[in-house]
């Protein structure tokens, strides 16, 4: 094979006349270009590290401060070094090495640099104090108070110019630890509507006992951790909620995201893959260079934490016997593609540059045209990532720790991301919306259980008809943002030309013994049973959207959460989980909004009884929900605090009946809103066709529902509902959706 010869930079043979050396100039050229690319990347990272490290200052600011100080010292006729070199001269002969003029210049530079560092420290401290104030969240929508306007001016003044993605990290405040008394009070209020008087009295007694006795001791350790670490929740949340789970991550943890509903850039699978892969790599380049803007709230002034972007690419979850680990490599120049049971390693760089979209399409075409058969055990290999974690960990250490298996597994785990060229067709069909979206969602959520590498940070799935989607691993971040641009020609191919001498994809080699194949089969059996049990339902709700809801002077998110309570009440009230972000704080992730409130229950009962006070109760319920959302976003939530107190109790070896009961309560209704990020890319008013169905996830509890929704434009809300067929406690997702549909229509009247 030509590409195999090009991979060798030189060859030599020993002859009677000496050593005969054969150089491959093309290979040496590629080595040179690759090294040049690598050093450029290191320099850019170093430069960005410096820029981020001194933000909100800048290197140009250093020059201005030093020059200004030197000018002032000359004008005021003072020693620029402020006597620094005079004091040094008493201990060492400075004048022997530096002239008097040189001493003045060096001293001025040192003092000016110190002044510059002091200014940066003051600006950063003031900005952190400003960002610790969250009173702006209590302004009514569209009505900004005078105090908030003054605060916004100060935030802008101390925020510096042209921030990069990670510029604000050191200026973000730390997540505060709420008082135990406040958390137990809010907890009791949240469970009051779900308990009868006797149950509530008992739980109140447990809470009061915890608040007086064990709670303060645990709280002391938690405060010590909050002073020592950047975020007192995130590392424990990642470890105990995600990495220590021993069950399958497919369905239970991983989530999915869908393509556009109505826009189909091309029907060519290779072209869509080539364009999407190139866009993802360009996005990674911007991440590496920190060229993306931070995400803001409130008039693009309040920055959110960007830490979760760091592990979007080049990341994989590694199985372990007791706990998994996250492996992230700084640089990866390849991806791995799965197609019809075969794994291919595809290099993303050639001639020292990223491949063009048409060249990546060319590589995908080569894979699609490859008619070779899978090696023994290769086709279902990825089922190991879909089953239980312990069998996968044992198989990895036994069968994939050496030889070609280790090399091939390293290629998968160290790839930038994983791509599946799916051999099925999925798409939203307006003539059959229910079944088409259900099949589409289930394919993205679990596929065939062996054609996605569920341990990768994300899988890019491109279907046979050109539709695509994502399956993402949840440990490393929450709801990542991947951007895909459209750069296709009229004939459906990517722009550009094919490369005549581009080396082809490299087929990964495996040597999987029968014992390992047996483990793969067992994992696939577990995964298939889990996938078959998932009941999902997705359909766009287009009778109205946030436009009508806002006319009722109600928060769209609060409205939908109350709708879910009313729809689910046809079954029963239950503990409800709504995810809220805490990225106003450094390394913040999520907090829980307990949506089943006393006010929401009062409104639901009024709707069932057709009382005339329904509108007033709806507004009270919406205001209460908004208040809970603000509390969650500003570090006053309930569940992360109680979770961390429980972790401390386990480390200390003490039992808390209160904490044990709180953390054992099931979330039978788990909900999440898919946020609209990067709103500047598409104007849905001008281009209503650029809407997506959003994404979804599996049910959190075996006897519960998982509900995801996305509010698009003014007249569209998409719901994703999942449950398990095996649970006698849940009605079908189709029936729940019909209840939601009925409730939405009823409430607007």
TrEMBL record:
The keyword Aminoacyl-tRNA synthetase does not apply. Residues 1-47 form the Carnitine O-palmitoyltransferase N-terminal domain. GO terms for biological process: carnitine metabolic process; fatty acid metabolic process; long-chain fatty acid transport. InterPro entries: Carn_acyl_trans, CAT-like_dom_sf, Cho/carn_acyl_trans, Cho/carn_acyl_trans_2, CPT_N. It is an enzyme of class 2 (transferase). Keywords: Acyltransferase, Fatty acid metabolism, Lipid metabolism, Membrane, Mitochondrion, Transferase, Transmembrane, Transmembrane helix, Transport. Its EC number is 2.3.1.21. PROSITE patterns: ACYLTRANSF_C_2. It is found in: Mitochondrion outer membrane. SUPFAM superfamilies: CoA-dependent acyltransferases. It is a multi-pass membrane protein. It comes from the Eukaryota. Belongs to the carnitine/choline acetyltransferase family. This is carnitine O-palmitoyltransferase. The lineage of its organism: Eukaryota, Metazoa, Chordata, Craniata, Vertebrata.
């Amino acid at each position: 094979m030509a590409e195999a010869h090009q991979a060798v930079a030189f060859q030599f043979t020993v002859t009677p006349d000496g050593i005969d050396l054969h150089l491959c100039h093309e290979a040496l050229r590629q080595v040179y270009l690759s090294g040049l690319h690598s050093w450029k990347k290191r320099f850019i990272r170093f430069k960005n590290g410096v820029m981020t490290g001194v933000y909100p200052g800048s290197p140009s600011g250093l020059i201005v401060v030093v020059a200004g100080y030197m000018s002032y010292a000359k004008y005021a006729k003072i020693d620029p070094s402020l006597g620094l070199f005079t004091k040094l001269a008493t201990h060492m002969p400075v004048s022997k090495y530096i002239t008097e003029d040189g001493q003045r210049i060096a001293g001025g530079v040192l003092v000016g640099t110190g002044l510059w560092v002091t200014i940066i420290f003051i600006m950063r401290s003031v900005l952190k104090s400003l960002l610790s104030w969250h009173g702006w969240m209590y302004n009514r929508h569209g009505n900004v108070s005078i105090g908030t306007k003054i605060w916004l001016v100060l935030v802008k003044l101390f925020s510096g110019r042209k921030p990069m993605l990670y510029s604000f990290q050191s200026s973000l405040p730390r997540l505060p630890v709420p008082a135990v008394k406040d958390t137990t009070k809010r907890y009791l209020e949240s469970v009051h509507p779900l308990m009868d008087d006797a149950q509530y009295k008992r739980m109140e007694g447990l809470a009061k006992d915890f608040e007086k006795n064990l709670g303060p001791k645990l709280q002391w350790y938690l405060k010590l951790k909050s002073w020592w670490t950047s975020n007192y929740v995130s590392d424990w949340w990642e470890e105990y909620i995600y990495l220590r789970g021993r069950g399958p991550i497919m369905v239970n943890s991983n989530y999915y995201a869908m393509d556009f509903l109505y826009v189909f850039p091309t029907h060519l699978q290779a072209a869509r893959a080539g364009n999407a892969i190139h866009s993802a790599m360009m996005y990674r380049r911007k991440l590496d260079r920190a060229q993306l803007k931070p995400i803001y709230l409130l008039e693009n002034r309040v920055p959110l934490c960007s830490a979760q972007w760091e592990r979007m690419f080049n990341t994989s979850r590694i199985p372990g016997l007791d706990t998994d680990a996250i492996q992230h490599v700084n640089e990866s120049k390849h991806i791995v593609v799965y197609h019809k049971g075969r794994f291919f390693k595809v290099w993303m760089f050639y001639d020292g540059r990223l491949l063009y979209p048409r060249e990546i399409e060319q590589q995908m075409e080569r894979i699609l045209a490859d008619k070779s058969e899978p090696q023994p055990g290769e086709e279902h290999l990825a089922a190991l990532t879909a089953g239980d974690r312990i069998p996968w960990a044992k198989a990895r250490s036994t069968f994939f720790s050496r030889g070609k298996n280790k090399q091939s597994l390293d290629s998968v785990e160290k790839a930038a991301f994983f791509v599946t060229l799916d051999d099925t067709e999925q798409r939203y069909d307006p003539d059959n919306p229910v079944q088409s979206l259900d099949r589409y969602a289930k394919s993205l959520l679990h596929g065939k259980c062996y054609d996605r590498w569920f341990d990768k940070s994300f899988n890019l799935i491109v279907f046979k008809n050109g539709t695509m989607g994502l399956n993402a691993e949840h440990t490393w971040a929450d709801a990542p943002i991947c951007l895909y641009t459209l750069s296709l020609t009229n004939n459906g191919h990517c722009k550009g030309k094919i490369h005549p001498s581009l080396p082809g994809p490299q087929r990964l080699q495996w040597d999987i013994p029968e014992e390992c194949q047996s483990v793969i089969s067992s994992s696939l059996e577990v995964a298939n049973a889990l996938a078959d049990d998932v009941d999902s339902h997705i359909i766009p709700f287009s009778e109205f959207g946030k436009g009508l809801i806002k006319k009722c002077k109600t928060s769209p998110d609060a409205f939908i959460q109350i709708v879910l309570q009313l729809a689910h009440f046809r079954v029963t009230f239950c503990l409800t989980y709504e995810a809220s972000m805490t990225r106003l704080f450094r390394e913040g992730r999520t907090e829980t909004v307990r949506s089943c409130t006393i006010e929401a229950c009062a409104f639901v009962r009024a709707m069932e009884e057709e009382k005339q006070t329904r509108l007033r109760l709806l507004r009270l319920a919406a205001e209460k929900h908004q208040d809970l959302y603000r509390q969650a976003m500003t570090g006053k939530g309930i569940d992360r605090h109680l979770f961390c107190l429980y972790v401390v109790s386990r480390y200390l070896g003490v039992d808390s009946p209160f904490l044990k009961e709180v953390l054992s309560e099931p979330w039978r209704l788990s909900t999440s809103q898919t946020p609209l990020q990067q709103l500047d890319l598409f104007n849905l008013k001008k281009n209503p066709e650029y809407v997506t169905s959003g994404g979804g996830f599996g049910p959190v509890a075996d006897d519960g529902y998982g509900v995801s929704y996305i509010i698009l434009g003014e007249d569209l809300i998409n719901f994703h509902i999942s449950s398990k067929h095996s649970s006698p406690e849940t009605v079908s997702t189709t029936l729940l959706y019909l209840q939601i549909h009925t409730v939405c229509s009823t409430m607007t009247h």
